[in-house]
Write a structure and sequence with these properties.
single chain; alpha+beta; Damage-inducible protein; globular; three-stranded mixed beta sheet; about 20% strand; 11 helices; Type_ISP_LLaBIII_C
């Protein structure tokens, strides 16, 4: 029992004598923390209070995309991050719950049609999306558009009939990255979900839509971007697996010219005793998610750590071994650096007139 977190819902299942049977088909990838995916056993019995998640990701075969936002009641500044995986409720920091806004909802077809529809059948031909066809049926669930017809009509009446649900989705993601918007509504974002006005011009809409789509593509596909050209200095044998094994990364130190104290050098990372990574642009540290920068999240999560209560060891090197790339974590640092730099560049461009 040391390896189980006895939540309120799990205790209730125990009292009801509910039986658990392992189903490997329920193992899915989840977004636990920024740029840190972990496997999740996605099951109503073992997941505490899943809320609306079953309608967002009903099974591992039902794909979706959305963005997690932190703001209401949080101590950290407003932030958001898109993902195509099952999100943790505290994705940008322990103790701070956020909200997930998905592009689609998967509705249970069998509840309304007695199971007449099969895989791939369209209930109603809906609007095409780059993320999936609205109205398609996959294994008893129909893909429903979360951008309602009412919202589309408002935007189309104001800005043009060619605007799509994807355009509005990307516009919102871009607008929520706007520094001017975050500053103006900083107090409101800590009290309520974001409210976004319909833009006054098509040019403004197109600007934020293009930025939002680029940002979403970067953030969702962070493992596929070209790594930033970093200087990886290796003392050991690069062909030896142990050379790339990480225990706990840390920033190098530099002397602050004003105070004379040693502070973190965010341009240089001590990976382990044999590997040092330098050439990280200082601007990359500007991309914040909750209370940490993107690269600081890698330092926090990609370390060997033993949970005191359960005795379970979380070793990020296991994933590098599983994908057959000893340099996976080093390469990920380069990729997230690229994501951070591109994000800062795109966000800075939003206020350009």
């Amino acid at each position: 029992t040391q390896r189980i977190k006895w939540s309120r819902s799990l205790r209730s299942s125990l009292y009801r004598n509910e039986k658990f049977e392992l189903d490997t088909g329920k193992v899915v990838r989840g977004s636990y923390r920024p740029f840190c995916a972990q496997y999740v056993y996605y099951d109503a019995l073992l997941n505490h209070e899943r809320s609306l998640l079953p309608s967002v990701f009903p099974t591992p075969t039902h794909r979706n995309i959305g963005f997690y936002s932190l703001g209401v009641g949080a101590t950290a500044d407003f932030s958001l991050l898109s993902t195509a995986f099952v999100p943790d409720v505290q994705m940008v920091g322990a103790g701070q719950n956020g909200v997930f806004s998905p592009r689609f909802t998967w509705g249970d077809v069998e509840a309304t049609d007695d199971g007449l529809f099969g895989k791939g059948v369209a209930v109603v031909n809906g609007e095409s999306s780059i993320y999936g066809q609205v109205g398609e049926v996959v294994d008893g669930y129909v893909r429903e558009d979360n951008i309602t017809d009412e919202i589309k009509k408002i935007y189309r009446d104001a800005l043009g009939t060619d605007i799509t649900g994807d355009d509005i989705f990307h516009f919102v993601y871009g607008k929520l990255h706007d520094p001017e918007y975050r500053t103006r509504y900083a107090a409101d974002l800590k009290k309520m979900l974001p409210h976004i006005e319909t833009p006054s011009s098509r040019a403004e809409f197109d600007k934020f839509t293009a930025a939002g789509q680029k940002l979403m593509d970067l953030h969702v596909h962070y493992e596929d971007v070209e790594p930033w050209p970093l200087d990886v200095q290796v003392k050991g044998d690069e062909s030896d697996r142990e050379t790339w094994r990480v225990l706990k990364m840390k920033w190098a130190k530099r002397r602050d010219p004003e105070t004379g104290k040693n502070i973190d050098d965010v341009t240089k990372l001590i990976y382990n005793k044999q590997v040092t990574i330098s050439g990280i642009p200082a601007e990359a540290d500007e991309y914040m998610l909750g209370s940490r920068s993107a690269i600081a999240w890698l330092i926090d999560r990609y370390q060997v750590k033993k949970d005191k209560a359960s005795g379970i060891v979380n070793d990020p090197n296991d994933w590098a071994d599983e994908v057959g790339n000893p340099r996976y974590i080093v390469d990920l640092i380069g990729r997230v650096t690229r994501v951070a730099m591109e994000t800062v560049r795109i966000v800075d461009s939003l206020n350009e007139k």
